[in-house]
Amino acid sequence: MHSSHATPMSDGVRTRVLSLLLLGLMPAIALAQPPHQLRIRVINAQTNKPIHDERLNVALKTDQIGSVAMATDKNGIILVDTGNATTIRILANMYADCRPRAELYTDYSIETIHHSGITTGNLCGGQQHTARPGELLLYEVPKTYIPTYGSPPASNLPHSDENPHTPPHL
Q1: pLDDT band at 163 (very low <50, low <70, confident <90, very high)
Q2: What's the pTM value of the predicted model, to 2 decimals?
Q3: Which of the four CATH numbers 3.40.640.10, 1.10.8.60, 2.40.440.10, 2.60.40.1120 does domain 35-142 have?
Q4: Residue 138 CA to its chain's centroid (Å)
């Protein structure tokens, strides 16, 4: 016959230990996303605030060719069920996209987004945030925003816009 030297826990102690364990896990459970879901977070590049009224064109790439307009919530977030897709492509709709031209039609790896997150390029200024695992971060500005650049040097060439009808100097 085998005898144990451990003292059995009372039901009250067992309940308290179990409650403490579950309370410790609650934040992790609350923040966990389903395995086939990712977050797209849209930020105003000028104000660094969430854009809550965008309708991004979202395309999941498996066999699908088209895209679906998806609205951001009050926190500038779109939850996307990725299913079996391996890449995702996003395009701005109501706002101007701040990504460099070469990045506009990028197919982002869903595996990379889940593993480490992806922050897109931001040509419009402002702070550069770091995406969290499971998040694709996009910067946009209102379409009425026009950046100011220095004036180009004036040209005195006869065919320039500054002197359209000036005859050439001989």
Answers
A1: low
A2: 0.65
A3: 2.60.40.1120
A4: 4
